[in-house]
Amino acid sequence: MTWRAMTPEEMVSRPEAQLQGSLLLIMVCTATLALAALLFLVFALLAVPAALADGRLVGMFASMFRGPSGVGLLYTVPTLYLGFWALVFTIMTFMRAPATPGLAATGLAIWVGLRLLISVAGQILLIARFNTGPGVILQSVLPLVLSIIGDVILATGFWVYMKEGARPNAYYRRLIKAG
């Protein structure tokens, strides 16, 4: 597929060059995700002084690799990363930065990789600590694998849309299909 630069008239008249349609929906969902992540982070930080005062914070980090609370701390890594990714994507979209599609797709692929690594590590820690027999595969590992496969499918769709979609190319890169 070949692309050509848009003329100044096309930039204002073509609907593809505007933040509309599926790109607008992605933007609204991503901005909502970024806002929710920021709010939850603020709520979590508000709890830190009280946890410091009665020693719970030290206990939480001391049990980092023991039990469900330690695994929960591991899962904050991809969660915080996704919130940061959503914030950066939102800002870059408002700025109409040409690098947004590639950076956003790469960032989402990194998130899927992080989620995979942290999820596998978390399951290994839980299985090592609370070995409940072969049923654990059906209870925790299989749903996790299916979830990661779903994430890969969604990230791949996002990647293809950002690379080959008419609206992302027109909105961010000011390119339109030639011919």
Mean pLDDT: 84
Inertia-based shape: elongated
What topology, given as strand order, has the largest sheet? 1-2
Figure out the total of helices: 7
Give Rg in angstroms: 21 Å
Major sheet details = 2 strands, antiparallel
Number of strand elements: 2
Describe this structure in words.
With 179 residues, the chain is mostly helical. The chain has one domain (3-177). It is built from seven helices and two strands; from the N terminus they run E-H-H-H-H-H-H-H-E. The protein has helices spanning 8-13, 21-53, 56-62, 67-95, 100-129, 135-164, 166-172, and strands spanning 3-5, 175-177. Strands 1-2 form a two-stranded antiparallel sheet. Helix 6 packs across helix 7. The longest helix is centred in the first third of the chain and has 33 residues, at 21-53. It is elongated. The mean pLDDT is 84.
State the gist of this model.
This protein has 179 residues and is mainly alpha-helical.
Strands, helices and their partners?
Blueprint: E1 3-5, H1 8-13, H2 21-53, H3 56-62, H4 67-95, H5 100-129, H6 135-164, H7 166-172, E2 175-177
Antiparallel strand pairs: 1-2
Helix pairs in contact: 2-4, 4-5, 5-6, 6-7
Features:
mainly alpha; elongated; two-stranded antiparallel sheet; 179 residues; 7 helices; single chain; 79% helix
